[in-house]
């Protein structure tokens, strides 16, 4: 009887609560977001709810006519009758002002043509800045990671957030929080590197930046982030997109999850995207333990989870873990996927499925709440349109373009500088040959804008790496005439600068279609690039290599033959100008490699923080270690590390230590240096990493100046997942390393006692 009374009381309370919510006006901006969501949700029909769980791509029929007016296909008109969660990339191929006008018209149409005036989320991505025409083009995330400057990354993504919102966008399917450790993977440069701590700092700051420290969302100045791909996507087997993912539970917890956890808890990301793949046999899009258990129950995530492209439906027709398309939709819904991206054969089935299983509507309501909540957070019900005058003033602002250049200068890595060949002097007459397949049409112009009148340039691209066609580009036949012509150019010059590496055709996303490839089975530079540098080096003149690429390459010949190597990854639209400024000594390079650079693909997996036992043996007929270690990057300064000290020889679970080192610039130019702190657990109950990056600081020192750099060592830094799969803090000996890379440092020790 008591149970019945309690149940009756609960039902009466719930009924009163629902009546109270339904009596409120969801358009009332004075209400809390939760109240507005609860006021709106009961009004929606089942079909309208499901519409708030779907995103389609603008390429199915959202464009402008010859007069710049909105033009919708019949398919889009039909979809928008019920409203929609969002639309991907509307206006991506037109300039910012035209896009803002188009998106204002589109939003107005959507609001006026669904019963409740629910606005849509317009969604973009960001790999080199906003993925749309006419925006500031920054370097890719991997390039930014090389800066080892999280504050710089925050400012860069602040511009991304502002420029996207000015176009009328609201969400960004970026940044990537994946750890990437396999250079065969074509999407490598979309992420922030191989290291957990570095990636965590970069992802956290990217999200804070793009969301305007969260305040910019409701103010209408920034967009929401969707951190992706949860989880482990960057480590597909064989580096092949859509392949299986096998990562131990311990590695997941200690190395893969932290960037996502920081995205949720510290940066307050509005969205999370699930991973294409499975995770140790469980398809990520049908994994409630991952998408609800870890993400929501453990971390408290309140935003929405969106599928990757068509991946809920693929639980049936690709992953083979669902018996039917309807079963796939139910798996995704139960796992915690709130929005279905693109598919027509997945969540579209939900209204019919609810008729057979009414309990599903509770899960639908759960997802719709999250989507509506996001739209209220972004202020779209109250201020859905863009002020066109703001677009004209704010897009590609002078400060944004200068930031792109600043980001370049801090991200370029000097891998090698034999006999200090760099920087080149502007004061001496010099003839410089700019050569190679990664030369751009405006490279010579950009170099001339930096170098002054004493330097004369000749330039020749010579050959392309591929035919640059289709989803699966083909390598071109060796062109002996092109090589001979470039060698002749080099013969007439005092110094040659070779632009080598790879491009967007040799490293790219491998889409689901079998005709679209992007991953590689080797890491060697494609085409006759090694032959080119060998022949030019044989002339006996200095050779400088500017390495451009989107995946790590095994540059053995380049590393041996070049006098200097500048690793630029994929810089901004001003990349060659920035590179010239480094080459001619206007700025000292200060980038550090965010990945380990291997000698051979046969060394993979090969990241600096592997377990210590992985380093027991080298390979036959191969040099020792990597070509260049994680964290490596030279300078025009000459940094000396000395006087390492630690505040105490012991730490306890309730105390902290401070470790410091003196850094002196013994060179004759002002330069920046990244001081890196690594920790090593000497004895663990499970096999432990060789070392782990736990802190870093970028400093700038004048010639002759010194600075003592200090870091805190906290008990949290020493935690790891033990034998029982619980986080443990184990007593024993630890080594702390302070230095310029993961291989060049000073060290001291301490003990953890309880």
TrEMBL record:
<comment type="similarity">
    <text>Belongs to the glycosyl hydrolase 3 family.</text>
</comment>
<dbReference type="InterPro" id="IPR017853">
    <property type="entry name" value="GH"/>
</dbReference>
<dbReference type="GO" id="GO:0008422">
    <property type="term" value="F:beta-glucosidase activity"/>
</dbReference>
<dbReference type="Pfam" id="PF00933">
    <property type="entry name" value="Glyco_hydro_3"/>
</dbReference>
<keyword id="KW-0378">Hydrolase</keyword>
<dbReference type="InterPro" id="IPR002772">
    <property type="entry name" value="Glyco_hydro_3_C"/>
</dbReference>
<dbReference type="InterPro" id="IPR036962">
    <property type="entry name" value="Glyco_hydro_3_N_sf"/>
</dbReference>
<feature type="domain" description="Fibronectin type III-like">
    <location>
        <begin position="673"/>
        <end position="742"/>
    </location>
</feature>
<dbReference type="Pfam" id="PF01915">
    <property type="entry name" value="Glyco_hydro_3_C"/>
</dbReference>
<dbReference type="GO" id="GO:0005975">
    <property type="term" value="P:carbohydrate metabolic process"/>
</dbReference>
<dbReference type="InterPro" id="IPR026891">
    <property type="entry name" value="Fn3-like"/>
</dbReference>
<protein>
    <submittedName>
        <fullName>Beta-glucosidase</fullName>
    </submittedName>
</protein>
<dbReference type="InterPro" id="IPR050288">
    <property type="entry name" value="Cellulose_deg_GH3"/>
</dbReference>
<dbReference type="InterPro" id="IPR001764">
    <property type="entry name" value="Glyco_hydro_3_N"/>
</dbReference>
<dbReference type="InterPro" id="IPR036881">
    <property type="entry name" value="Glyco_hydro_3_C_sf"/>
</dbReference>
<dbReference type="Pfam" id="PF14310">
    <property type="entry name" value="Fn3-like"/>
</dbReference>
<dbReference type="InterPro" id="IPR013783">
    <property type="entry name" value="Ig-like_fold"/>
</dbReference>
